[in-house]
Amino acid sequence: MKADHTATARGARGTSGSKQARSARRRPAAAKRQPHAAREATDHRRELLRQMLLIRRFEDRCVELYSAAKIRGFVHLYIGEEAVAVGVNQALTEADAVVATYREHGHALARGVPADSIMSEMYGRSTGCSGGRGGSMHLFDAARRFYGGNAIVGGGIPLACGLALADRMRGENRVTCCFFGDGAFAEGEFHEVANLAVLWRLPLLLVCENNLYAMGTALSREHAQTDLALRAASYGMPAWPVDGMDVLAVEAAARRAAVAVRAGGGPCFLEARTYRYRAHSMYDPDRYRDKAEIERWKSRDPIDALADAVRAEGEPAGFVDEIAQKVDAEIDAAVQSAEQAPLEPVEGLLRYVTSPAETS
Amino acid sequence: MPSLGADMDEGTLIEWLVHPGDHVERGDIVAVVETAKSTIEIECFDTGTVGRLLVEPATTVPVGTPLAVIEDGAKAPAAASHQAAARRGAASAQMSAPAASPAPAPSVPVPAGRKPAEVSPILRHLAHELHVDLAAVLGTGPGGRITHADIEHASRTRRTRPRASPLARRVAGELHIDLGRVHGTGKNGVIRAEDVRAAAAPSAPAPSAVPAEDAPPRQPPAPRAAQPDRAAAMRRSIADLMSRSKREIPHYYLAAEIDLDSALNWMRERNRRLEVADRLVPAALMLKAAARALTEVPELNGYWLNDRYVPGAGVHLGVAISLRTGGLIAPALHDADRLPLSELMSALRDLTSRARAGRLRATETADPTMTVTNLGDQGVERVYGVIYPPQVALLGLGKVTERPVAVDGLLGVHPGVTATLAADHRASDGAVGARFLTALDRLLQKPEEL
Amino acid sequence: MTAQTTGTKPRRITYREAMREALREALRSDERVFLMGEDVGRYGGCFGVSLGLLEEFGPERIRDTPLSESGFVGAGIGAALGGMRPIVEIMTVNFSLLALDQILNNAATLLHMSGGQLAVPLVIRMTTGAGRQVAAQHSHSLEGWYAHIPGIRVLAPATVADARSVLAPALADPDPVLIFEHGGLYNASDDPDPSAGPVDIERAAIRRSGTDATVVTFGGCLPKALAAADQLAGHGVSAEVIDLRSLRPLDDATIMSSVARTHHAVVVDEAWRTGSLAAEISARITEQAFYELDAPVERVCSAEVPIPYAHQLEEAALPQAADIVAAVRKAVG
What we know:
Number of strands of chain B: 18
Radius of gyration of chain A: 20 Å
Strand content of chain B: 15-25%
CATH architecture of chain A: 3-Layer(aba) Sandwich
Number of helices of chain A: 13
CATH class of the domain at 250-449 in chain B: Alpha Beta
Shape of chain B: globular
Largest sheet of chain B: 7 strands, mixed
Number of strands of chain A: 7
Largest sheet of chain A: 5 strands, parallel
CATH class of chain A: Alpha Beta
Distance between the termini of chain A: 51 Å
CATH topology of chain A: Rossmann fold
Radius of gyration of chain B: 23 Å
Helix content of chain B: 25-40%
Strand order of the largest sheet of chain A: 1-2-3-7-6
Shape of chain A: globular
Oligomer: heterotrimer
Distance between the termini of chain B: 33 Å
Order of helices and strands of chain A: HHHEHHHEHEEEHHEHEHHH
CATH topology of the domain at 250-449 in chain B: Chloramphenicol Acetyltransferase
CATH superfamily of the domain at 250-449 in chain B: Chloramphenicol acetyltransferase-like domain
């Protein structure tokens, strides 16, 4: 099943709402006056498009593979939310850290974890990024400072707090970026950490991906006060909402927040307002959402929106297909690699319970 | 006086084992009788209370003479049953000799094949509720029927396996002690390691560090009602021991025909001068000779332990004695080689009666260095025995029979016995066994020197 | 007071002082080490263990936290991932339940979930146990729950010497270590041998040799077990007392070799009997030393009741020396 990215309904896009998005649409005129900068901007957008397409195609393939029972357990797809992971990641450096949730395929891909490594992990192979031990919900890549992959809602937030604490105590000028959802915003862990991070002025970027549903429960049924950015701000940190379907808006917001965090003033909070097209997980029959609502959000598809913007700057009509082809080839290779990768021998079952003996 | 042999006309009552007023059940041993051939325990065929004893010990009476009156029994007084038995002939009468094989009581063996159909539905239901296996219940009702009380009793005493701690079991295995014979001093009679060691050691049991309630030094004779369970337990322990013997011990067998003419002549001559109570039986001679033979062939007087032969500290002959509840026990006659014949004889009598009464001492069960089994009175000619581990030999004695012999070139008829030796080929070779049998033979030719 | 005292003069210190010395030594020797928890700084620690440390090391390294167990335990985990060597103090095991998810699903599990990439060198200290009439919610002994979890090490120092000595190896461990300090032990005093080498935190310690029964215990029950052993000696029963010291992993070898000598075992555990660590130890003795046992393994544990407030009820609910004496006598017979 492949979503059709080239067919877009443009009308609804105008309701995206952020200043940054509107200024981005004004950019093409400026580009004619500054060709080099425009070229860079276009290249940058193509890159954003590529990253989002990679995630989109990857997730689409997961649907197929899960249905074919190649991927097992729980799988939570990021389709529709790509702009958030991709946009935020633009504000982060390699030195920064990322903590995500069980819906983390997109974040891992955006962070640079190779597609074959992720696919192998979901196939349970020993070449997976977690050695086949974690699966879809527990993708880890220590070298890329990607700290999972956490199946407990809100469970990663204190972890991110600690990573930021370590950086502060060691005088490291880097950001820990923690992704979590509107559901996690109800967990005590979020509030404990929000308080603690502001209290200790930790370099923590809290990105709440508000996709309006915590599994099957709508936002208005889980929060008495649904303006999450407002509530986060009450802890004493800068907090603002952003259109999660507009990758450029997300990027701009994230860059601003990262600068603030790096300056040492304490944490920042972004509420990325986004939407997942598919159910909570592959097991979820998705009975709790109105199909019309899903269609409405699809009309604001972030990939389509950016593709339109880039086309408007004069890119050839089929450039998205060209990118899509490359992305598909990458994913095909990842699947093939996963299919052929070895399973860890059962004799090694008790490994990774304690660290191997070493002199410390 | 029962007929205990086709050629038996009379018998001498040696000892009463019951007293007036005792309750007896069919199959109980009630007296010891001496015949020309051996001393035999006799049983009664009725259930009831012993009334008058009609014959005094040391009295010889013809076969068929009433010996005692049993009252309230299911059958006619003992006399009639004995006469009936005499009429039916020896074959139908049960007897048990001091060294006989397991002699199940005629009417009340543990009925292995009892059909539950013989039990009423009500009782079957009761047995089911109490988780009692009817096939293993000893029926004490008329004709051996299973009664309500039998089932309830079986339920209460269901645990036939001796209750022993894991350590006790291990120690018992190491010391080759039959747990069924160990008295437990733990809570609820649980057997603990020190109880096993006490059963094995000649000295006093190790003192318990904590002053516990005083436990009786040995088990009093079990109440009759518990006998079926004891029998099953004994059967099981015999089964274990014999299986182990056959599994572990490479047996070899030797036989010798021993002329008993001199021995029995000497014995009869000597018995004429003795009180009845002191008279010797052929078994005593053979036991003494065997004991003496062991001093000449010490390789057969000991144990196979930890892959090597360990000689016994003395010659402690195990004497196989059948029990009236079924089963076999082989307690030791200590230092049998040094006992004068008369003492050996009385020791044998004492051992037999105590064995049957369940009053053996721990040292007697633990110490035998070689066992002798005498099945002659069962009519067996030769015995192919199974060694009791960890012993390394077993002497079998068959029936004393009149045999044609060549003496000084002339054909004669002498009493003789076939002695068979079963020996552990790990500990000894045929030459050693042969030496023993030769010695035994030789010793029995000079009975006056025994 | 430094850890490097080399004088031969005996030096009597309390358990809390010993732990304080250990903390001080750790903070001085490794700048990655810091202490974090409720009231560890200005208050000096709920049980006085960290008294004076704030003044010596400052608020960055002696961090008072808000009442956010899950938050600051998780922060400890993250800080450990980020290269620090945090010592997180959870005031008591009773409050650790709020952080159970972080301990189980993150600290114990990250190494495995990441396929060996992320070790968590975190130390968590908790006070545990009952006995001061603090009633049901403040009297838990949940060491057994934690000892159930693969991926963490669980220690229960029961002596002043162990309080002094277990922290350093715990900090050196690349994986999470939980240290349980029984509240009743803080005032215990002793003069630990300053020349004693580092303690082997994987080995149980035989605190008293004996021949008739093996008494296995840990933490706050150790003094009661030793008192029981004294009483038993008066009755001619020689009890060997083993202080487990490490609850996960358990030192099976020491336990079994003792049982092989004494043939009777009694396990003393302040937790409730059902599903306790004592049950685990009893099962292991049955598995590994069955043929040595001359009696069933006895357990002395708390009664199956939330710990009551009233003095006599609390005393009756908890294991006491008399209970241990009775259990040994029952086993030995």
